[in-house]
Specification:
The chain folds into two domains: 1-57, no CATH class; 93-273, Orthogonal Bundle (Cytochrome p450), CATH 1.10.630.10. It is 56% helix and 4% strand. Strand 1 and strand 2 form a beta hairpin. The chain has 274 residues and is mainly alpha-helical. The N and C termini lie far apart (45 Å). It has a two-stranded antiparallel sheet with strand order 1-2. A two-stranded antiparallel sheet has the order 3-4. The chain binds protoporphyrin IX containing FE (HEM). Residues 59, 63, 78-79, 90, 141, 227-228, 231-232, 235-236, 239 line the site of protoporphyrin IX containing FE.
Length: 274
């Protein structure tokens, strides 16, 4: 491409990546970023094929862009593995994510969402991300990982610190390392606390049992817990935040999804109405 390289750490790109993706899809669907040395596929069929062909498109050593991530984040995460290691770990989780179990979790999520909204009903105002989108994912994750209510904010704070990026920051910062270490220390204590309790069928229970039966190493268990704390927290919060923003910007779309439109951004100083 003749235009400047796409910078995934540029907040301008992150704010609205879709025009970049569209341009790549049209002009350079198998794009190689020379500056940072990564490939980017933007067509569904290519992504689908790559996901299924782990021999050609390995995950090991290929998930984080930062060259120093491996040294600074020492616990192994199964997201960065390929079969058979990956299958060994994923097999443990299959019984925990059946449609029935997900239905129960969905019911819980709906109930908790209403509880989070309840205090704001009388004023009709809430900070969509602060009061709901940032809280509900950790609340649900806490069921899977048995994180007590009073510890959820600090776990979320560590996860947020770990993934926080200043504009154009392209290496691992002291804040990122502090967040990672905070999570590692928290989960070391958490596992030690539950080591002798019987497996209760939770994700935490399955991981501890895997360690006890030597299916996973202790470091892999801590790495998996850190991964869940990050993956279950920021993706969902940001998707919900982006969804609210888009509905706010596109009132007709908001009507289509059955809600009354959110108010004009300028009129509420960034606080969305219920
Ligand atoms: C809108 C929400 C979410 C999005 C967009 C999302 C997106 C993704 C993507 C793209 C990957 C593949 C990354 C890669 O292979 O490099 C991934 C993997 C993963 N996600 Fe999510 N995710 C979301 C929610 C969650 C939640 C709620 C959890 C946990 C409860 C979670 C846990 C994981 C885990 C453990 C992996 C690694 C899977 C593996 O390697 O087998 N994600 N996610």
């Amino acid at each position: 491409m003749t235009s400047p390289e796409l910078d995934p750490y540029d907040h301008g790109f992150q704010w609205d990546p879709y025009p970049y993706y569209r341009r790549l899809r049209e002009q350079d669907p198998v794009y190689f970023n020379r500056q940072r040395g990564f490939w980017l596929l933007t067509k569904w069929a290519d992504v689908h094929q790559a996901f299924r062909d782990f021999k050609t498109f390995a995950s090991a050593g290929a998930v984080a862009l930062e060259a120093d991530a491996v040294d600074k984040f020492p616990y192994p995460m199964f997201i960065s593995t390929d079969p058979p290691d990956h299958s060994r770990v994923r097999r443990l989780f299959a019984p925990l994510f059946t449609p029935e179990k997900m239905k129960a979790l969905e019911d819980y999520t709906r109930k908790r969402t209403l509880e989070f909204l309840q205090p704001h009903l009388s004023s009709g105002r809430l900070d969509f991300v602060g009061d709901l989108a940032a809280r509900i994912p950790m609340d649900v994750l806490a069921v899977l990982l048995r994180i007590p209510a009073h510890e959820q904010d600090s776990v979320r704070g560590f996860a947020d610190d770990l993934i926080a990026r200043e504009d154009k920051q392209n290496d691992v910062s002291p804040r990122n390392v502090a967040g990672y270490m905070g999570l590692a220390q928290y989960f070391e204590r958490h596992v030690a606390l539950h080591l002798s309790t019987p497996n209760d069928g939770s994700l935490l229970g399955a991981l501890i049992q895997a360690e006890t039966e030597a299916v996973m190493s202790h470091a892999e268990v801590i790495g998996a817990l850190i991964l869940f704390a990050i993956a279950g927290n920021e993706t969902t919060t940001k998707t919900m935040g982006n969804l609210a923003l888009r509905l706010w910007q596109h009132p007709r779309a908001a009507r289509v999804v059955g809600r009354r439109p959110l108010p004009d951004p300028a009129s509420r100083g960034g606080v969305a109405a219920l």
